[in-house]
Amino acid sequence: MVLCQGGEAAAAAVSAAGGKEPEVPLSQEDDAGPGQSQLCPAPGAEAAGADEPRVCGCCSGLSWPRCCKAPGTKKKAPCPGLGLFYTVLSAFLFSVTSLFLKKIEDVHAVEVSAFRCVFQMAFVLPGLIYYKTGFLGPKGKRIFLFFRGFFGSSAMVLLYYAYRVMPLADATVLTFSSPVFTSLLAWIFLKEKYSIWDLLFTLFAITGVVLIARPPFLFGSNVTGIEGNYADHLKGTIAAITSAVSTALTFVILRKVGKSVHYFLSIWYYAVIGLTGCVIVLSLMNEWSLPYCGKDRVFLILIGVLGLGGQIFLTKALQIEKAGPVSIMKTMDVLFAFILQILFLNHLPTWWTVGGALCVIASSTGTAIRKWHQSSKKAKQNEI
């Protein structure tokens, strides 16, 4: 190992060497001040069979020839707005997926969920093998992964059921109440702060749910703007709200686990537990059957592919963009749902639905902005 100097000391070393660049690139840790020395791998250490890998600490494990602070190395800047574009694309793919779900006629919502889980498993399995994560995960995290898979897959099945029995826009709007439930559940289980603003956003979400559900004891017996009878509409509302709560529980569990578990392993549990549960439910209901219509089979494949694509783009968006802007931009789901419902399902939303959508979107957007502000404030404090 050799010592790499930072700043003016390095320039002096270059001059002393006759103007030649040093063989070992410069490296400076974030917590090291000017003039302090850091350990960098010596040239030829790897070839000499040294145990220490030639890795630079300032680049999150990149090998030293590609060090971000090496002479002549330029860090590639991300394309501005690319994360938000991925979010809009993800929202569009999820909305088209829900439209195809509405178009399927002879396939139960649980069976659609089972096909979706099969696609998830087919995608994740090569990743598990490549990253060598195993199939069970760390012993101390397996119980959390199990409940992550259970609540995540339950949210999917309940949402698919809601799409089948109530207007597309109504079900989509109700799912956007999940950030409010996440704040509440994080306060209960993770002891996170729950302020008066969170309570206000919760009341906004409840108001939106009431406007969409339109219970007869508030709106009378003649409820308009629903698909089928009111009993199915009420069942769909309960399913969508339960799906939002399950999604919130999933987020709380993922926050509890943190980065100690690989993302692919989390999806693997989601797919395996979801498929197992769907098969059990379909067997008990005696609803398991391949679709008779070729059109339904095409829709099933498209639901699996587009749903997976939406999840991939959403993940990529969260990797290169802050969670706050992504959460706000994800409300495009609602806009796409309204447009697709009008264009392809010939179902005009009522003013009650529009009002409920505005309340729920205001609630979820307010929650996202508040969390974004808190994280930015905390980051500035850490820098100081």
Mind explaining what this structure looks like?
Helix content is 65%, strand content 2%. It has 2 domains: 2-66, no CATH class; 82-367, no CATH class. It has helices at residues 8-16, 82-103, 109-131, 142-165, 168-175, 178-189, 196-213, 216-219, 230-257, 263-285, 294-320, 323-329, 332-344, 351-383; strands at 2-5, 37-40. The longest helix has 33 residues, at 351-383. Helix 3 packs antiparallel against helix 10 and helix 4 packs antiparallel against helix 5 (168-175). It is mostly helical. Interacts with STIM1; stimulated by depletion of intracellular calcium. Interacts with ORAI1. Interacts with the plasma membrane calcium-transporting ATPases ATP2B1 and ATP2B4. Interacts with ATP1A1, ATP2A2, KPNB1 and XPO1. This is Solute carrier family 35 member G1.
What key attributes describe this structure?
single chain, 384 residues, mainly alpha, two-stranded antiparallel ribbon, 14 helices, EamA_dom, membrane
Secondary structure topology:
Elements lengths: L1 E4 L2 H9 L20 E4 L41 H22 L5 H23 L10 H24 L2 H8 L2 H12 L6 H18 L2 H4 L10 H28 L5 H23 L8 H27 L2 H7 L2 H13 L6 H33 L1
Antiparallel strand pairs: 1-2
Helix pairs in contact: 2-11, 2-13, 3-4, 3-10, 3-11, 4-5, 4-9, 4-10, 5-9, 5-13, 5-14, 6-7, 6-9, 6-14, 7-14, 12-14
| N- and C-termini, Cα separation | 32 Å
Q: Give, in order, the helices and strands.
A: EHEHHHHHHHHHHHHH
The level of helicity is: 55-70%
Shape: globular
Largest sheet at a glance? 2 strands, antiparallel
Q: In angstroms, what is the radius of gyration?
A: 26 Å
Low-pLDDT segments: 1-64
Identify the quaternary structure here: single chain
Which strand order spans the largest sheet, edge to edge or round the barrel? 1-2
Q: What proportion strand?
A: under 5%
Mean pLDDT: 75
Number of helices: 14
| Total number of distinct structural domains | 2
Please state the structural category.
mainly alpha
Number of strands: 2
Function: May play a role in intracellular calcium sensing and homeostasis. May act as a negative regulator of plasma membrane calcium-transporting ATPases preventing calcium efflux from the cell.
Family: Belongs to the TMEM20 family.
InterPro entries: EamA_dom, EmrE-like
Membrane topology: Multi-pass membrane protein
